Amino acid sequence: MEIIEYDDSYLDDIRDLLTELEKYIVSIDKDKLDIVHPEYHEKMALVDLNEVNKNNGKCYIAVENDKAIGLIMGIIPQYNEYDYLDYKCPKRGVITELIVTSKIRSKGIGKKLMDKMEEYFKSVDCEYVLVDVFAYNENAISFYGKKGYHHRMYTDIKKL
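The structure corresponding to this sequence follows.
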């Protein structure tokens, strides 16, 4: 297994991985708000990769036997003119996607992908890394906790 920077020859694998992740999120969504739209498989990878390109980001993939078995995407978003009014605005990287195919999880691939993205963020002088984690994804919460991440914000929801 090797970690490489994304190239277009892996687009179909990326689509499959992102769809696998979204199906998992749908399966654990206690609020039943997430869906896998019929166009998700075709369009989401392109949307994500466009965000990576627009925001000085990277997409790394874990490859084994010429197949992507995991991926991580990260961006370095800009602050808007109002963010400075109530925030120090340190340069930060944001993990937007992380998945390792379910067939081979818990073998250290996610950790290697995270290490690679953190290395990139450090190389461009980011001070922090942020990641949004779906509240019902207990496996991901545990994984990020082991990597030294902690909660800073909570989003509460109530059905009316």
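Helices lie at 11-28, 40-54, 109-123, 138-146.
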